[in-house]
Amino acid sequence: MESISTVASSRWQRFKNSDIVYYFLKDKVAMVCFAVFISFATAALFAPFIAPTNPYDLSSIDIMDSELPPAWMEDGDQSFVLGTDDQGRDIYSTILYGMRLSLTIGLLAVALQLTIGVIVGLTAGYFGGRIDSLLMRIADVQLSFSTMMVAIIVSAIFRTALGAETYAQYAVIMLVVIIGFAEWPQYARTVRASVLAEKKKEYVEAAKVMGFRAPRIMFRHILPNCLSPILVISTVQVANAIMSEAALSFLGLGLPVDQPSLGSLISIGFNYIFSGSWWITAFPGIVLITLVLVINLLGDWLRDVFNPKIYKG
Residue 61 falls within a domain, yes or no? Predict the structure, then answer.
């Protein structure tokens, strides 16, 4: 037990003394953004315990409470701090649950993008030749279409093939697959470029001489040295995935109205913004913008930290 605790203590000490912690503690913007992101993620994770009401529970919703303004405005109800939507759901509660769905879809979609992109990028960069040409041409063809165009086309195909009701039941899984499939070339191209530089180094040649097979060399030796750009891309891609989900939901191709994400909340409220019920769209929109902004700023900070030539601390 002592050896395990000693090793854990040693690793923690090395982490505390690492460059990334040093630069993080010197950058106030990074600290604020990280604190905001953790606050949002914690609130989303514990939404069932924090939210005053459950927007999925139809028995707790009263249509007579629809379009109530925030508590501090005239005709506002103290029970609904940020007001209610057109169905009588508490905006504050729907934001917490919606943020939970948006973050879940964003993280899972990035995990899928990363998995596909890393495998394709490693394979193309390591083997080269015709395999490299074939895989990169596939990636180039997909990159020639915008992410949103691919997502809309695939979403429409799934909705037509499965039917609206079946699609609604598996909407979260469908969105993860759609967004993940649309963005993997970003990882593939970045990983391939890193592999082309790494595979010429001595440690790779030594692994080949020792008789290690290609998959072991690729995943256990080359991949760990490509993690810096992957981490930076992942941070930015989480924000992009959240925005893609919000855009699809706004267009009616995302989550159904009974599963409120930030995008679907904005879409619902947009129909009422000119009637005076601005809060239905405004508050989810502010949360979405803030969430995407802090993730992008963290991504920019990571990019600068991993590139010492441009980082000035």
Answer: no
